Structure formats: C-alpha cells, structure tokens
Amino acid sequence: MKRISLTQYLVEEQRQNNTIPAELRLLIEVVARACKTISHAVGKGALGEVLGTADTENVQGEVQKKLDIISNEILLEANEWGGHLAAMASEEMETIHPIPNRYPKGEYMLTFDPLDGSSNIDVNVSIGTIFSVLKAPEGMGEPTEEAFMQPGTKQVAAGYAVYGPQTMLVLTTGNGVNCFTLDREMGSWVLTQRDMKIPAKTKEFAINMSNARHWHAPVKRYVDELLEGENGPRGTNFNMRWVASMVADVHRILNRGGIFMYPADTRDTSMPGKLRLMYEANPMAFIVEQAGGAATDGQQRILDIQPHKLHQRVPVFLGSRDEVAVVTGYHQG
Ligand code: AHM
Ligand code: MG
Prior knowledge:
Elements: H1 6-17, H2 22-44, E1 53-57, E2 63-65, H3 66-80, E3 85-90, E4 97-98, E5 108-116, E6 127-135, H4 145-148, E7 157-163, E8 167-172, E9 177-183, E10 188-193, E11 204-206, H5 217-227, E12 239-240, H6 246-256, E13 259-262, H7 277-290, E14 294-296, E15 316-319, H8 321-332
Parallel strand pairs: 3-5, 11-12, 11-13
Antiparallel strand pairs: 1-2, 3-4, 5-6, 6-7, 7-8, 8-9, 9-10, 13-15, 14-15
Helix pairs in contact: 2-3, 5-8
Bound molecules: 2,5-anhydro-1,6-di-O-phosphono-D-mannitol and magnesium ion (MG).
C-alpha cells in the first residue's frame, strides 16, 4: 500500500483544489502534532501519572481531570508561536486566549475541546480532542469573544482525534472527510480512509437513556418508537450504543451509520442540552454534513445557529440523514 502522510495529503489538496492555504495547512499540522502528544500522554495512563482529578473546576462548573488540563496546555503551547493564529478558545478556559504579543499573529482562530469524554479517562475507554477553525473578522484588532461569534457555516476546517485502540484523526476542510491513523513507530499520520460517507439509513441509535424521564415529548416519542421495534410504527428492530465520549460515538456513526442525540430536557431550562456549540456541536456537525449526514438542534441546522456566548450549549441530533429528519420533524410538528 502506498502511504500518504497527512502532510502530503494537505499539500496535494492545496495544489488540486486550492482549499487549504499554507497558513491553514500549518495550523492543521500543528493541531495534529499536539494530538499526537496528547495521545502519547493518554497511552501512558497511570504510568505517566496523568489519571485522576485535578481538584479544580472549569467555567461550566465541571470538575477537571488532570488530562483535561494537560491536553489544554499541550494545544495552547503548540499553537501559540507558529504565527498562524490570532486567538484560541477552549472548553477548559473561561474566556479567549489571544496570541501573546511576543509572537506574530495570523488570520485564523481555533476553538477546541482538548479532552472530550472526560468521564471515560480513568476507565480506559476511548476519548478524544475536537477542534474547529474560523477566520478572524476582516480588520480585527485585539481579538475579542465577539470575533468568535460566527455560525458553524463559517468554519474553514474541523476535526477530531480519537484515542482508542488506534489513534485516528478525522478531518474536513469543506471538501469531504478523510481519516488518518497514527503510525506510533514512525510518529506520522497516515491516510487510511478517504471520503467517508454516512449511510442515510440506520438501525442504530445513541442517547443517554438514563435521562429518559426528563425528555421533552418529541424525543420521548421518537425513542419510544425505536424501542417498539418491528411491531411498532417503525416496523424494524433498532440497536443502541452509548460510549459517553462524543468522539467515539460520532466515529462509529461515520463508519457504519447511526443517530446520536444529546437533547435539551426539562431539568434546567437555562441549560439547553449538555454539549457546547462552538467546540463540540459545530465541528461535529461540519464533519457529519461533509460525510453526507445531517445535524440539527431539533428545529434547525446546527451550522446555521448564530452563537451569542462562547460556552453556549445546544441540543444535538446528528448522523444518518433519514433518522435526523424523523426526530427533527417530530420537534417541528
Ligand atoms: P466533556 O466534554 O466534559 O467530556 O463532556 C461531553 C461528553 C460527550 O463526549 C458525551 O457525548 C457526553 O458528554 C456524555 O454525557 P453523559 O455523561 O450524560 O453520558
Ligand atoms: Mg466534550
């Protein structure tokens, strides 16, 4: 098999399709390198003393794990000095992180969830990193949170790394979705899946069922119908999977279809769902749409939502097109 590295893929993509300017290529390579470092730390586990909690809370009031903080530091440090960014924002930081004045500034802005699936860290289940790239508004001086308030349609690149039995990087720059596997001996990312496509139909769903009693009527109706199987209105048996790491659930869906849901519920109306728009829902929605799937908040396309807060939460329904259409239809009807 002829091996195509991430670098070669990006260079050729730039030559053929002109979708990846040199600065963006550098940005993606730096993020990929940081993910390699995170993968290494994850892989060491207890031997690297990276497991367990850090006795701190992030801005969303969640207890931080040591690896949340380590991964955030790795991404910040890797991306500060290259000259390709104006600012960064992360799940683990209250406000934005402008590039320090001692470094040149670039025209891109990066948001990330440094370590997604935190509840799985200490039990050796797949976790990941999610990232999204925006362009700084024309003529922006000092970066502000306001500059990040762009709908997901404005993303120029998005991706995730999944740290599982294999470490993989899934990437889109708006021209399909490709997957790279980390060759641990060589330390390089190798293209292993081109142009990933999500089947439009599926018999598999992913949702945290323990929240069922809090769901709103449309979600309850949709899941009840799936559970009724071949004797119910859907006339077919559905299977369920829930890893509790969005990266792992989305990765499965990219490979064999499925629908992923993290709905809003009746518990706290000030908190519409659990997942965050800027660095979880938007990049995943971009990837899923580029793979032929769909992503909505129940009412509208996630990528069309105008953000108003950096850490804004959003209900998420994404994956196989036909199923996302059914549950979205139940909300709209
Ligand atoms: P995190 O970014 O703090 O890890 O939280 C996000 C994660 C998602 O990866 C996953 O889909 C969800 O939270 C799991 O939630 P639950 O614990 O309700 O199953
Ligand atoms: Mg997360």
